[in-house]
Amino acid sequence: MQLKSQLVTSIEAFYARHHYWTPTNEKVTRIETPFVNRHRDAVIFYVVQETKHILKLTDGGYTLDDLESENCFLSQSTQQLRLLKTQLKRRGVSFDSDSHEIFLRTSTKDYARHQIQLLHTLLFVEDLFSATAFQHDGPFIDQIHDFLTSVITTDQSILENTSNQPCYADFVVVGAEHGTTKLIWTMNNADNRSYAAAIIIEKCQLQSQHANTEFYVMINDEAPVAEDVIQIFKAEDITPVLFSKRYEHVAKLTGQANWDEPEH
């Protein structure tokens, strides 16, 4: 439970301190967050005061440039650009193909919710393109999509929590009438505690408004998955599903009592 008490608590405190934007005399303000990237460096974003009431929130191009410097992201790859643009569009965040900036614009009064939207997107993008994402059978998120659509109908819906803050479960398995809905996140790099914390925060924001809902995270286990990550999710009532054992969870996901893993 240490991650919950320290990292998640510090992130929630950060969001509470930054729940509105106060204009400054600086055109560009650097914001350091409690989130850390895969290098264990603080995740940074910038607030650009474009007008009195309009702000641009941006990572300055760092996220994708850093991934590309380690050959995790290839800006010349049509497949990767298509995946990136599709996921950013779904999350309501923009991308500049020249500067590699991931950004959005907001009003000063809507700063708080768009700050969360940008930060969780940056963590998602880093996870999406982390080192193991494109091994073997294509992007990990696409492998999950193929698996889920082979066993049950899914959607990539946008949900809202009690603060009208958009939350982005990667997949939604919609139950039959009065049935249980399943919200599923994907986690490609199980060593990224900050992304785990972001998933937990989104789940906590959603659960009070979305009754009769179960929460899952599907984890890429090509590399060993630390037991503390598994336990953190379980403690928050999020069912961790190792991708190699995904067929063991089909009955619970689909509501079908019997399901045999297909032969390869």
UniProtKB/TrEMBL annotation:
<dbReference type="Pfam" id="PF08862">
    <property type="entry name" value="DUF1829"/>
</dbReference>
<dbReference type="InterPro" id="IPR014960">
    <property type="entry name" value="DUF1828"/>
</dbReference>
<protein>
    <submittedName>
        <fullName>DUF1828 domain-containing protein</fullName>
    </submittedName>
</protein>
<feature type="domain" description="DUF1828">
    <location>
        <begin position="33"/>
        <end position="125"/>
    </location>
</feature>
<feature type="domain" description="DUF1829">
    <location>
        <begin position="170"/>
        <end position="246"/>
    </location>
</feature>
<dbReference type="InterPro" id="IPR014961">
    <property type="entry name" value="DUF1829"/>
</dbReference>
<dbReference type="Pfam" id="PF08861">
    <property type="entry name" value="DUF1828"/>
</dbReference>
